[in-house]
Design a protein that fits this description.
Blueprint lengths: L10 E6 L21 E7 L3 E2 L5 E2 L8 E3 L6 E5 L2 E7 L5 E3 L2
Antiparallel strand pairs: 1-2, 1-7, 2-5, 3-4, 5-8, 6-7
């Protein structure tokens, strides 16, 4: 469903990662530890044009895991899933294993 939405300019469509609320052993985790500001990039826009008219591409790619700000972004609901739209400069960084 998210493939139908292609972000414009330098916007990035992100699906937030929801961490598990309990461990594999069945121990419930506190709500504070279950809040994680990361997400997976679902779609990216083409970028924006600078003052000279050159295209500046988006710095992240589809499939990357990114660190998100605590507040911001635009919530988008497509089907039953919730996504968030962020500007490229609002994304704090990429996460690697």
């Amino acid at each position: 469903m998210a493939k139908r939405l292609i972000p414009l300019l330098n916007r990035v469509l992100v699906e937030k990662i929801t961490p598990p609320s309990k461990t594999t052993a069945g121990i419930l985790l506190p709500e504070k530890t279950s809040k994680l500001n990361s997400g997976k990039v679902v779609a990216v826009g083409p970028g924006y044009h600078d003052r000279e008219g050159k295209l500046v591409p988006v710095s992240v790619k589809e499939g990357e895991t990114v660190l998100l700000p605590e507040y911001g972004g635009t919530e988008v609901k497509l089907g039953e899933k919730e996504y968030h739209l962020y500007r490229d400069e609002d994304i704090l960084g990429t996460l690697h294993d």
